Amino acid sequence: MKERSGENWCFWEEIEAEETAPGVVRRVLAFCDEMMCVENTFETGAIGALHHHPHTQITYVAKGRFLFTIGNETHEVKAGDTLLKQDNIEHGCKCLEEGILVDIFTPMREDFLK
Hints:
By secondary structure, the chain is mainly beta. 0% of the residues lie in helices and 58% in strands. It starts with 16 loop residues before the first strand and ends in an 8-residue tail after the last strand.
């Protein structure tokens, strides 16, 4: 996948999907060293386990409803909402209604390319 780094065009149907947890599918979309765009599709009830990483992350809720925790706050979010996760802050979610999250990371997540 690393050979796609810096490509100007990223066609969804050509992107390899990877199940990352039960009911969660990730597609690494466009990326370069400085940033990365990732789509995560969730089935109702699927869990995005609490975790943290040294990347700043913005999440756009493209579809569905989620119960999201960032740090020590938890809120229900829905399509159109956006979340900011600063470096190393713990975060995770539960999908309440089948949905799609679009994540932007800076810098890019090299661990997603392995």
